[in-house]
Amino acid sequence: MSSIHIEAKVGDIAETVLLPGDPLRAKHVAETFLEDAVCYNTVRNMFGFTGYYKGKKVSVQGTGMGMGSAAIYIHELINTYNAKNLIRVGTCGAIQKEINLGQVLLAMSASGDSDANNLYFEGMHYAATADFDLLLKAYKAAQRLNIKTYKGSVFSTNTFYDDDIQNRWKKWQKHGILGVEMETQMLFTLAKRFGVKALSILTVSDNIITGEATSSKEREQSFNDMMKIALELA
Ligand SMILES: O=P(O)(O)O[C@H]1O[C@H](CO)[C@@H](O)[C@H]1O
Ligand SMILES: O=c1cc[nH]c(=O)[nH]1
User: Which of 183, 199, 216 to mutate to test the pocket of ligand 1 (most atoms within 8 A of CB)?
Assistant: First the structure.
């Protein structure tokens, strides 16, 4: 048996799945960090791999961009493939001035503008929250590895571009949101709905307020920090 968007057999995917938006990041993670990695999905080129990290079975699955796409993969990973720990490894734009490019955020919660959540909760506002055990483990792993992290709330949006992107985030900046990305709110919501654990670890690829953006060298280094934390959770 397989699912509509993933062609793996049940059992091919580990209980712990890392979730980058970019399927080529999934490939890169598998090739760089995992041993004996096998590709289990090429449907729509949304690559998924299972391999081993320090002897532990772990999978990495691209989700695409935005909550509509991510929800499909998250739903199928949980309900067809029995995934239990889902850890997003993504990029985000920081909206606090002091957060530098390449730094790592541990998302405790995610606000957002998903119509899917709005409809599901009949216009009320669900507080999408990370799993505390995974969050604590990630925090301790970062401390052990001497990696600085910011802990707090992020915002998941379905619209990457806007007419006036800096002003758009002013109220959210004031309310302490650390950064903006496009999938975490849906991940946390679905994980709770189906009784599994989720966490989102994000590397800052740009600062929306200051207008800075990362060079490829900086992205490479910071990406490694995020991956080291995420893989410790496997
Ligand atoms: O780097 P990823 O994981 O794709 O995450 C961020 O990058 C994409 C936008 O460029 C969105 O998916 C956003 O959430
Ligand atoms: O979704 C995203 C990801 C990175 N940077 C942004 O501004 N938005």
Answer: 183
